[in-house]
Specification:
single chain; 50 residues; mainly alpha
């Protein structure tokens, strides 16, 4: 029974899915409720070398 629980925990909390805005199911549900994307997005900046 513990193995099934671990698998479900992994699937719902740690397994990111491309079709759910690249989030785990629990994170996606939070995102739908709040409208706030729960993962910080890093933006790369380009630096001019001239």
């Amino acid at each position: 029974m513990k193995m099934e629980s671990n698998i479900m925990d992994y699937y719902n909390n740690d397994r990111y899915q491309w079709n759910l805005a690249k989030l785990a199911p629990n994170h996606y549900a939070t995102y739908l409720k709040t409208g706030i994307y729960p993962i910080e997005i890093q933006v790369n900046t380009l630096i001019s070398l001239s």
